[in-house]
C-alpha cells in the first residue's frame, strides 16, 4: 500500500529531538526511557490510605504538553478566503484526511478547539497495520508476540507483533504533512453547520463563520452533526486504563497481553464474580519494562454499557490478586467506544469520517489504523469532485463522497462485523472463552484479516465455517442457540443494504 505520509515517513532528527524534550521520552523495542518526575510524598502517602488499598485515588501525574514544534498556518477569518473543504476536528481522522485532501491541491481548513493539543487516548495496533501505511516510526514500543489467557489453564501465543502508537509522533507527522500541503487551521469549536444548494457554512463558538463546498465532520463519537435515520443501538466498549509505575509485575516483557479472561482474582468477591461470569471483562496489558506497564480492564462490548465503577472494582481485585502494587499513576483513561449500530444516512450534506461514521470495528472497537488507511480513499472521492479539473458540488458531491467511503461491499462486510458484535453480546464468560479459544486457532489469515477489517464477504463466510469447525461442542451449542437472531438480523440488513 502507498505510504500514507510520503514526505515524512521517517521523522527528522531535529523533530525527534525537540519532540521528546517534553515530559516523556519515547519507548523503543530495546530500551524504555520514560522520564519519571520525582515521586510526590502526597501520592506515596495515599498508597497506604486509599480506601481501595490501591491506585484509583491517585492523580495521574502526566500533564499533557501541547505540540509546539510545528508551525501551523492559521486561516485569517477576516479575509473570507474561498475554501473547498472544512474538516471539523483535528483527531487522527481529521488530520489524516486534511493532509490527504490538501495534497491534491484542494483548499482545506481544519477547525478544532485546540489543534496543537496532545491526543488524550492511548492507541495500540498490530504492527503490520501501521507498517503497511509507512508509519513504522510511529510506535513507542513493539512486542514480537501477543498472548491471550483463555482461562486458568490455557494460554494462546499469537505470532503477530503488536505496538503502542506514539501518539505525539503520529500527530506531529500528520500536522507536518498538513503544513507542507497548505492546510489552514482555525482554533474554535463548531456550533452549527448550515447548508445551501452548492455551499455549506460553519459557525464557531468565537462567532467566526466559514464557507466551503464540503464540510467533513471528524469530531469523534459524540458528534451530533451527522444524521441517522435508524435507532442507534450501539454496543459499547468500556475500559479503565492506567500507565503506571509498579513495584513488580508478572508479565513477559517480550509479549503484550491482548486479553486475560481469567477470573480467579474474584474468588473472594462473590458478587463481582457472578457479574463477571455474565458480563465478562478482561485485562489488556503492555509491559514496557519491569516497573512500567499500561494496564486496562476492558469490557469488550456490552449493551447497555457496563458500569465504570464495576470495571474499576474488578481491576482493583485483579491487580491485588496478581500482586501488582501500583506506586504511581502516570496517565489514566476512561475509554468508551460506541460499536456497531447503523451507519449514518447515506448520502447527506455533512460528510462524516472517523468516529462519526461507524469506522470503529464493530467487534473490537479498534479504529485508528483503519481510519488512516481509508483517508486516501475518501480523499480521492473528494478530489474527483473538488479538484482542479472537476467541479461537482451539492447533491452529486455528497453522493460521490459518501459512496466513496461506504461502497456497497464495505457496507455489507460491516454488517458481518456487526453480526460478530451481536454474537459477542450474547456470550457469557464461558461462551466468550470458548469463542476466543476457537477464534485464535483459526488460520492466521482469517483472524488477522477479521481483526484488521480486511476480509471480503466470501472470506468472512469461510471464516464462519472454519470457526464452527474449530469450536468445542459447548461453543457450537452457543452458536446454534444464540446466533440465529443476530444472523437473521444480519441477513435482513444485507438484503436492505444490497437493494
Ligand atoms: C480511551 C480510548 C482509547 C482508544 N484506544 C484505541 C486503540 O488502542 N486503538 C484503536 O484503533 N482505537 C482506539 N480507540 C478508538 C478510536 O480510534 C479513537 O476514539 C480515535 O481517537 C477516534 O478518532 P477521531 O479522529 O474520529 O476522533 P477524536 O480522536 O475524538 O478527535 C475528534 C477531535 O474533534 C474535536 N472536536 C470535537 N467536537 C468539535 C467541534 N464541535 N468543533 C471542532 N472540533 C471538535 C475534538 O476536540 C478532537 O480533537 C480508543 C478510543 C478511546 C476513547
From TrEMBL:
It comes from the Eukaryota. InterPro entries: FAD/NAD-bd_sf, Lycopene_cyclase_b/e. It comes from Zinnia elegans. One of its GO terms (biological process) is carotenoid biosynthetic process. It is found in: Plastid. Belongs to the lycopene cyclase family. Keywords: Isomerase, Plastid, Transit peptide. This is CCS capsanthin/capsorubin synthase. GO terms for molecular function: intramolecular oxidoreductase activity; oxidoreductase activity, acting on paired donors, with incorporation or reduction of molecular oxygen. Pfam families: Lycopene_cycl (PF05834). PANTHER family: CAPSANTHIN_CAPSORUBIN SYNTHASE, CHROMOPLAST PROTEIN, PTHR39757. Pathway: Carotenoid biosynthesis. Its main location: plastid. SUPFAM superfamilies: FAD/NAD(P)-binding domain (SSF51905). GO terms for cellular component: plastid.
Amino acid at each position: 500500500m502507498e505510504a500514507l505520509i510520503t514526505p515524512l515517513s521517517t521523522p527528522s532528527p531535529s523533530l525527534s529531538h525537540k519532540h521528546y524534550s517534553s515530559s516523556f521520552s519515547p519507548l523503543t523495542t530495546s530500551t524504555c526511557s520514560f522520564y519519571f518526575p520525582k515521586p510526590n510524598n502526597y501520592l506515596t502517602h495515599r498508597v497506604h490510605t486509599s480506601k481501595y488499598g490501591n491506585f484509583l485515588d491517585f492523580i495521574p501525574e502526566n500533564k499533557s504538553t501541547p505540540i509546539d514544534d510545528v508551525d501551523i498556518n492559521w486561516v485569517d477569518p477576516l479575509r473570507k478566503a474561498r475554501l473547498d473543504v472544512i474538516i471539523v476536528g483535528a483527531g487522527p481522522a481529521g488530520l489524516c484526511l486534511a493532509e490527504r485532501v490538501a495534497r491534491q491541491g484542494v483548499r482545506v481548513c481544519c477547525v478544532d478547539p485546540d489543534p496543537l493539543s496532545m491526543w488524550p487516548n492511548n492507541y495500540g495496533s498490530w504492527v503490520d497495520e501501521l507498517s503497511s501505511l509507512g508509519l513504522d516510526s510511529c510506535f513507542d514500543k513493539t512486542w514480537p508476540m501477543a498472548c491471550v489467557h483463555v482461562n486458568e489453564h490455557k494460554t494462546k501465543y499469537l505470532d503477530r507483533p503488536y505496538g503502542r502508537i506514539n501518539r505525539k509522533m503520529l500527530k506531529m507527522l500528520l500536522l507536518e504533512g498538513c503544513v507542507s500541503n497548505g492546510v489552514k487551521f482555525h482554533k474554535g469549536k463548531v456550533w452549527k453547520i448550515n447548508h445551501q444548494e452548492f455551499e455549506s457554512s460553519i459557525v464557531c463558538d468565537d462567532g467566526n463563520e466559514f464557507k466551503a463546498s464540503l464540510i467533513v465532520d471528524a469530531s469523534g463519537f459524540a458528534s451530533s452533526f451527522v444524521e441517522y435515520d435508524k435507532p442507534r443501538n450501539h454496543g459499547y466498549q468500556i475500559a479503565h486504563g492506567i500507565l503506571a509505575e509498579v513495584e513488580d509485575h508478572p508479565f513477559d516483557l517480550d509479549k503484550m497481553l491482548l486479553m486475560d479472561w481469567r477470573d480467579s482474582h474474584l474468588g473472594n468477591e462473590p458478587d463481582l464474580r457472578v457479574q463477571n461470569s455474565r458480563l465478562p471483562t478482561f485485562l489488556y496489558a503492555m509491559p514496557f519494562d519491569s516497573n512500567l506497564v499500561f494496564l486496562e480492564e476492558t469490557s469488550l462490548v456490552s449493551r447497555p454499557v457496563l458500569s465504570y465503577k464495576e470495571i474499576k472494582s474488578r481491576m482493583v481485585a485483579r491487580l491485588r490478586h496478581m500482586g501488582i502494587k501500583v506506586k504511581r499513576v502516570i496517565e489514566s483513561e476512561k475509554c468508551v467506544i460506541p460499536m456497531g449500530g447503523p451507519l449514518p444516512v447515506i448520502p447527506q450534506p455533512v460528510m462524516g469520517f472517523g468516529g462519526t461514521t461507524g469506522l470503529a470495528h464493530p467487534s473490537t472497537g479498534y479504529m485508528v489504523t483503519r481510519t488512516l488507511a481509508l483517508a486516501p480513499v475518501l480523499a480521492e472521492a473528494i478530489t474527483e469532485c473538488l479538484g482542479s479539473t472537476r467541479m461537482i458540488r451539492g447533491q452529486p458531491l455528497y453522493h460521490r463522497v459518501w459512496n466513496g467511503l461506504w461502497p456497497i461491499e464495505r457496507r455489507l462486510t460491516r454488517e458481518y462485523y456487526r453480526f460478530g458484535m451481536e454474537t459477542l453480546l450474547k456470550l457469557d464468560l464461558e461462551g466468550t472463552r470458548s469463542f476466543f479459544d476457537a477464534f485464535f486457532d483459526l488460520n492466521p489469515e482469517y483472524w488477522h484479516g477479521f481483526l484488521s477489517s480486511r476480509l471480503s464477504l466470501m472470506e468472512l463466510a469461510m471464516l464462519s465455517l472454519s470457526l464452527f469447525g474449530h469450536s468445542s461442542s459447548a461453543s457450537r451449542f452457543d452458536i446454534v442457540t444464540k446466533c440465529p437472531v443476530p444472523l437473521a438480523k444480519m441477513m435482513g440488513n444485507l438484503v436492505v443494504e444490497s437493494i
